[in-house]
Amino acid sequence: MLIAKVILAAGQSSRFNGCKLTADIGAGQTMIERAVDVIQALDSSPVFVVTGAWHKEVKNTLENNKNIKLIENKQWDKGLGDSIATATKAILKNQQPDGILFMLADQVELTTEHLSELVANFKKHPARWCANYGERLGVPAIFPNVDLSKLSGLTTDKGAQHLLRCNDEEVNTVNLKCASLDIDTEAQLHEFIEKRCKVFSRQK
């Protein structure tokens, strides 16, 4: 079963002082590199990274990474939905996946194990699968191939939320409260790094 893997990394980071995607999140690793490592560990298929406002910066950061395919969304300012549509259309030009897995580049607490749980459930029951944050649903999420035409036509800046909250279609969830954390500000990044350092200290 082929599940295309997509990292959404096209936003402007308007609340961050600069490009958060290339910011060091600890251990000499940038935010976008961590996201790539996490999703790439699922299998040997390529990782699609949707870039936008910081395309050059992300491209330069990932230039030594193998099995990466950048998809530049030049209309990134239209919102997350347009980036999802751009990625879906680009993928469908070369393959017909059974589903597409989407995650955000700044979901810094997500691990490969979290994504693996979603993938395993999808393989057993191919349908919409997403993270349950506890109060709402969101990415990471996997959409089956029957949804790909809908994803290709997205224009809303809310991404594919309406598909995950649709009462007329089956939506399955995995409890992933950690997925609710995404980095929007420098203060949030510093808080995450401090938390990460404390965890490493306890493990020594």
Task: Walk me through the topology.
Layout: E1 3-9, H1 31-40, E2 47-51, H2 55-61, E3 68-72, H3 80-92, E4 99-104, H4 112-124, E5 128-132, E6 137-144, H5 148-152, H6 161-164, E7 171-175, H7 186-203
Parallel strand pairs: 1-2, 1-4, 2-3, 5-7
Antiparallel strand pairs: 4-6, 5-6
Task: Describe it.
- With 204 residues, the chain is of the alpha/beta class.
- The protein has seven helices and seven strands, in the order βαβαβαβαββααβα.
- The chain has helices at 31-40, 55-61, 80-92, 112-124, 148-152, 161-164, 186-203, and strands at residues 3-9, 47-51, 68-72, 99-104, 128-132, 137-144, 171-175.
- A seven-stranded mixed beta sheet has the order 3-2-1-4-6-5-7, sandwiched between helices.
- It is globular and about 40 Å long.
- The N and C termini lie far apart (39 Å).
Oligomeric form: single chain
- Please tell me what the overall shape is: globular
Question: Approximately how much helix is present in the residues?
Answer: 25-40%
Question: What portion of the residues fall into strands of 2 or more residues?
Answer: 15-25%
Radius of gyration: 16 Å
Structural class: alpha/beta
Low-confidence stretches: none
Instruction: Kindly report how far apart the N and C termini lie.
Output: 39 Å
Strand order of the largest sheet: 3-2-1-4-6-5-7
How is the main sheet built?
7 strands, mixed
The total of helices stands at: 7
Q: Please trace the helix and strand order, writing H or E for each element.
A: EHEHEHEHEEHHEH
DSSP summary, beta strand count = 7
For the residues shown, what is the average pLDDT?
Answer: 91
